[in-house]
Write a structure and sequence with these properties.
Helices cover about 0% and strands about 60% of the residues. It contains no helices and eight strands.
Length: about 120
């Protein structure tokens, strides 16, 4: 394990139309060993949480849940693969699927921001 996600903040930069995360959504990551968790909110997301395990090549195998702005509770699973940008920040390329609602899949990208 070479990447450290602890105390990093990420912002959405791209998502498919069936996703709820948008450019106003911020993710606040923490890490202990190979366990990663985050709280997220902003835009269409009122409050969300995720938990993940660091797997091969520092990818994250995660499960997430949130309450959206219409009061719905949504759940899903996601595989996030990291890319290290030229300035050292982390970009995560995500393939996700809802485990609630219509069970559709999508792709998103979130990128580390420096507060």
């Amino acid at each position: 394990m070479s990447l450290n996600y602890h105390q990093k903040t990420f912002q959405s930069i791209a998502n498919t139309d069936n996703g709820e995360v948008g450019e106003k959504t911020l993710f606040h990551y923490q890490q202990q060993g190979n366990i990663v968790w985050a709280e997220y909110s902003g835009g269409a997301i009122v409050k969300g949480f995720l938990v993940a395990k660091v797997i091969e090549n520092d990818a994250l195998d995660m499960r997430y849940e949130h309450i959206n702005s219409t009061g719905g509770i949504m759940t899903g699973k996601c595989l996030s693969r990291p890319e290290i940008l030229s300035d050292g920040r982390i970009r995560l390329h995500e393939q996700w699927q809802w485990t609630s609602g219509d069970l559709s899949s999508g792709k998103s990208i979130i990128e580390e921001i420096i507060p």
